[in-house]
Amino acid sequence: MVPSKTVQPPGAWGEELFAGRNIRTNQPPPGLNIARIEAVKSGEAHAMFFVLVILGLPVYSLLWWLWAHVALRRAGVGKAWRRALAAFVLLQVGVYGVLIASRFGALSNDVPLSLIASTYLWHLIALPLGILLAVIAGVLALVAWVVRVGSARAKPANIAPLGERARKDSPHDSAHGGDSRGAFITAPTTARGDDAHGGAASPLEAPALSRRGALVALAAGLPPAISIVSTGVAMSQVRSFRVRELDIPVPGLPRSLEGMTIAHVSDIHVGRFTGGAVLKRISEATSSLRADVVLVTGDIIDHSLDDLPAALDCLRAMDSRAGTFLCEGNHDLFQGAREFEDRVKAAGLPLLLDESATVRVRGESIRLLGLRWATQVRARKFVMHGELPFSREPDAFSILLAHHPHAFDAAAKGGVGLTLAGHTHGGQLMLSPNLGLGPWMFRYWSGLYQRSGCALVVSNGVGNWFPLRTNAPAEIVTLSPWSSRGVFEMKLITPFR
Questions:
Q1: Smallest Cα–Cα separation from 383: which of 17, 45, 9, 42?
Q2: I need a surface site. Which of 155, 262, 265, 462 has the fewest CB within 10 A?
Q3: Distances from the Cα of 261 to the Cαs of 51, 451, 460, in angstroms?
Q4: For residue 418, what is the enclosing H or E element?
Q5: pTM here?
Q6: Model confidence over 16-57: pLDDT tens digits?
Q7: DSSP alpha helix (H) spans, 170-205
């Protein structure tokens, strides 16, 4: 059955959202031009920051290597280790340059996937750690220097001369241990003098130098070791995913829709780390769920429109009773929003861009709502703070497709029964279900959330733009809503772990 599709939103929720126009008057809302100007300025600022970060990473790598080389040489670490470190850093910088050049079409990208993963992990995880360790080492060295200078200044300037004078004036006492204070004072001077002229160093100084050398070697060797180990872990998981089953309590769900199956697919990221045979596995796994409907919440490609045909083939191969529907994500638009949207629609896939589509499942009407990827200004003003005037559609159960999970604030305010989102990758790097990048960057990052009788499901995503995940496995989510009479305050029901 071909679903009906309309740009008319439920109730008043699209008055300044749908295509930037007031649905009732078909006129641009007040302040639209100002919003566009602010969006352009904000976008330019973020783009400039992004470019500076991209250009700065290889520079930071070389500066870190220079620090590590000097520190290791002063600590007495052998040339072989220093040369190995130089080769490692130069390899990372070289691969990074190839990746940047290939993105702009200057070079073809024939780099092995393991080297690409290693370069990502070095520049985005290990290098920041290395810089942090270098800063800590510098601070400790500065503190040690300040302590030494302070101790030297605290000693009376005439202590050594008095000791020398005491030794000269009382040779008998000095020879027989009579002036132990003078002997004690002059002994360090003699040791320092021997060391300064190439003699044997004081036995008390050798362990300190050895310990310092070990700490420097650790600070310089730990980041490359982390990069190598994490690359091994990433390559073992980058093409794997799981199918996660979840029962969702949805207050107000029509009884006839209880037990329906929704296949939620998000963040495929067709590109460097997701492609080839894994796309066939994704479409086959989704089809095997025999879902009533397949809903895709954006980022079907990683960045290049050259990968769009493979992504579209993957989506078309997903089988369900009512079809496949999708919204766009930020990665989809990197090489041009208009071209992406036109090509997806030309392929016959229902891409919902601030639009709605009605499908019938088990005799009931379901209104599917899809958001465009918000600009920085709209994300900050509307999605991030939930200021959209949603209202419930009385004759149909509503499901919102939104790439960014913070759209749930507006959806819950407007009475949209179920919101599906992605974007967060489950936090990507998590130490525990509630500790990691997820809660640091997002209010909702993974799992099922409930607020005021409305539900949100945030998928970890099935693909990868970044090769490593910890405690946030890639996944396809199959949802089975069931009716609940309770009204929930905002809370996390269960994390996807």
A1: 17
A2: 155
A3: 43, 22, 19
A4: strand 418-421
A5: 0.77
A6: 333 333 333 444 444 444 444 454 454 556 667 777 778 889
A7: 171-175, 180-196
